[in-house]
Amino acid sequence: MRLLLVGPPGVGKGTQAALLEQKFGARQLSSGNIFREELAAESDLGKLAKTYMEKGELVPDEVTIDMMGKHIAAAEESGKGFILDGFPRTVNQAIALDKLFEKMNLTLDKVISLEVDDEEVVQRLSSRICCSKCGEIYNKRNKPPKVEGVCDKCGGELFVRKDDQPETIRERLRVFHETTQPVIDYYDKAGRVLHVEALNIEATNAEIIASLE
Ligand code: AMP
User: Fold this and answer.
1) Which residues are catalytic?
2) What is the CA radius of gyration of the chain?
3) Helices 91-104 & 61-78, crossing angle to 10 degrees?
4) Ligand 1 pocket check: which of 6, 28, 58 to mutate, most ligand atoms within 8 Å of Cβ?
């Protein structure tokens, strides 16, 4: 299975990708998580990505495409495919991904566009908390952890992402409309997109699964 999840920040791409990984075994490949891992490891790539991520800007295409190409190749070796979450985010990245698929003789099963309005994004991101250990995502409003500040799954410490501050959220939304919406239009032209209104985690997941079965 090879899927692609697109949508604004905070729409639930990571949550849905993790649920789909659990159900189908395909590997979740989140470009944002991979950048955060590089950042934590203080690699050259992480140091470069940090300057962009903190401002809510996109890491340059060349670097991102190269990094994701390597992860896609590794996931393919696992034999169960992958779920791309947060990549591609520019039309350039989408074109590069098409070329990579052609070279590797792969086909994309589905592009899933998760959709909510900007106001909802701001509300969600300003109450989002993440686990520093396993990456599980919580929300103070509608998915709080059982114990404040502690991950239900692994006991890791919960934190607020630096780019979930109000000013950075607005910048990330601006970047989404300007740069990532055209990616959805790019796939729409090829008739490859399932549009899902992502208001509720379970209902959204059920709709995606129904479209895949
Ligand atoms: P996310 O966790 O998907 O919200 O990504 C966090 C940050 O990582 C973004 O605001 C960007 O700075 C960077 N990033 C993630 N994916 C990409 C991508 N496909 N292209 C460029 N930058 C990205």
Assistant:
1) 13, 89, 128, 161, 172
2) 16
3) 30
4) 58
Residue positions counted in the chain: 213
Q: Which atom of ligand 1 is nearest to the CA of 10?
A: 4
CA distance 100 to 115: 27
Residues 6+ apart with CB under 8 A from 159: 129, 130, 132
Q: What is the pLDDT of residue 205?
A: 97
Show me where the domains of the chain are located.
Answer: 2-116+174-212
What is the SS3 assignment for 115?
A: strand
Pocket-forming residues, ligand 1, beta carbon under 6 Å: 9, 31-32, 35, 52-53, 56-59, 64, 86-89, 93, 163, 172
Measured CA to CA, the distance from residue 159 to residue 141 in angstroms comes to 15
pLDDT for 192: 80
**How far apart (Å, rounded) are the C-alpha atoms in residues 151 and 138?**
9
CA distance 183 to 175: 12
Q: Which CATH architecture fits 2-116+174-212?
A: 3-Layer(aba) Sandwich (3.40)
| The pLDDT of residue 97 is above 90 | yes
Please check whether residue 79 is in contact with residue 24, taking contact to mean a CB–CB distance below 8 angstroms. Answer: no
